[in-house]
Write a structure and sequence with these properties.
By secondary structure, this protein is mainly alpha-helical. It is built from seven helices and three strands; from the N terminus they run αααβααββαα.
């Protein structure tokens, strides 16, 4: 029986090149951050390809999913949506215009606060987003197929710790 050769990724090549020219440097941070960065790009590409099957861009899904997960009646102010979707208000305006044209969201003035704009899912938008959420999760499941459940759990804990170290703090989701 032959022993399987270990597999190498693109970051292995980069760190090997650094070791060759600068053996005095500890490239372990570069190896980890490089893998996180490359994984992010590859995951985003997979998500984009998966959503493209339905003619939807990732940013469209982000806005629609943010509205859907806000709960019934699936309405957020423009400011709340901008904050939750992590996009500037200028970018959000263009995105909402596009989604209004597609009949997926509606824009209305808040009757209680005339200067506040409310964005809501249309019935079509809600139905599409529910279908997309299922399709999206199947795609993400495929992307993580190389990990066991225990490995996913461990990676989730570790990545949460990295995000908290980087300042990504929110209120306790159980409290909202």
């Amino acid at each position: 029986m032959t022993e399987q050769q270990p597999q190498h990724d693109g970051v292995d090549l980069i760190t090997a090149q650094w070791r060759a020219v600068r053996p005095d440097l500890d490239t372990s941070p570069m190896a980890l951050i490089g893998r996180l960065s490359r994984a992010s790009r590859l995951l985003e590409r997979g998500i984009k390809e998966n959503l493209a099957v339905h003619g939807v861009e990732p940013w469209e899904f982000d806005v629609l999913a943010t509205l859907l997960r806000s709960g019934t009646p699936h309405v957020l102010s423009a400011g709340e949506l901008s904050s939750a979707a992590m996009v500037s208000s200028a970018a959000l305006t263009n995105r909402i215009d596009h989604l209004v044209e597609k009949g997926l969201v509606e824009r209305a003035v808040d009757p209680a606060h005339r200067r506040r704009v409310l964005i809501s899912l249309t019935d079509t938008g809600r139905e599409l987003t529910n279908r997309l959420a299922e399709h999206h999760l199947i795609g993400e499941e495929r992307q993580l197929a190389g990990l066991t459940t225990a490995e996913r759990d461990q990676l989730t804990v570790l990545l949460r710790r990295v995000l908290l170290t980087l300042g990504d703090h929110v209120e306790d989701p159980a409290q909202t």
